Structures are given as C-alpha cells and as structure tokens.
Input
Amino acid sequence: MTELESCMESLIKTFHRYADEDGDGKTLSKKELKKLVETELPTFLKTQNNPKTVDCIMKDLDQNKDDKLDFEEFLPLIVGLSMACEKCYMLFQKKGKK
Output
C-alpha cells in the first residue's frame, strides 16, 4: 500500500473501532465520538475553550439528526482539522524559508 492508502485505511479502521464499541459498528454515538476525540485528537481538544466541544461537533456534523455520526458525517471533522493543520504547516514552511 502507498502512504496515502495506508492513511485512508487507518482513518477507516479508527472510525469503525470506536463505532463498534456499542456493537453497532456503523455509527458513532456521542459517547463514542467523545472517546474518539479524547483519545485520537487530544491536542485539538486541549486547544478548545468550550467544555461542550464534543456536543457542538455532534450537532454540527449530524446531518440527519439521528444523534449518531456515520462515516460520511464524520469525515468533515477530519477534513476541517486537516485543512487547518495544513495552513499551520504552510505558515511554518514560509517562516523557515526566511
């Protein structure tokens, strides 16, 4: 597998590992999402000033309002965080070239 393919596989496996905690395996409950964010995105969580960050994420991403996130609903979180990280990366690169 290529590096990118491995990253995609890792993202899929991580989602399903947490989604499977309640036996469902297809969606993340708020509890599962909270555990995933606390475990897999601890730096992001520490930078938030809102103790209800996970509640806000769930509300924003849950398109069909079933109080669960399927993989498609979960992906915008990863995409958004990746885009923010890429901007930081580019700023760091720019400063390093000066």
About this structure: The mean pLDDT is 93.
